[in-house]
Amino acid sequence: MLAEWTSKWIKVFDKLNDIVIDDFDYEHGIRGLITTKHCVKCIATNQCWFVDEKNKKPERMEYSFEEILKDTKNKRGLYHYNCHCKEINIPTPKESEIELIIPEGKIGWLFKDKEGLVKKALGYEPNDEFLEYFKKQVLKSYCKGQYYILNINKYGVSISIKVKVEGSGEKTGKTYYVRSGWMVFSNGKLKSNTLIAGWWLNEVV
Fold this sequence. Notes:
- This protein has helices at residues 40-45, 65-70, 104-113, 115-121, 128-143; strands at 9-14, 49-51, 85-90, 99-101, 147-153, 156-166, 175-185, 189-199.
- It is of the alpha+beta class.
- The protein is elongated, with a radius of gyration of 19 Å.
- Mean pLDDT is 89; it is low at 1-5.
């Protein structure tokens, strides 16, 4: 059964490649012999989920009229010539289907460097209770498609998620929106880059 929102979602899939961004370490990203057979963009997006909208999924390759006429062997692919990637329609993901990967250092950074924002601006104590609440809000926003792609490179697809936070304590009754940075990993996984990157300032999603 689909969630109440109905954004159309796709999964990028390359039937000739079972290597995904998760297979590479965070420090170095995509590298090795695999890059002689598949481009970085294809590996970075393979088996990842995206909303089927501009700025929320990888850009398709645009071909000129001349290139289309010359392509007698139908080699124009999704992202480049001879690209094997396809966009497959998938159901809108449920929050329970998304796995958040948060390195321990990211949590410590949130509680230390963002203590003022969490405590004074949002009204929460920077502790595990707030972290669990924030994670739930991240899941809700991502599944509603409230994000946009920042870039795609050898480290994967980085996105900025618009996270709704209801104020607590003295901030009760107020609603805030913050930016949260993540990498899109395969099959519904998100790896944290920056749990709270700052305020959401009029970005369109």
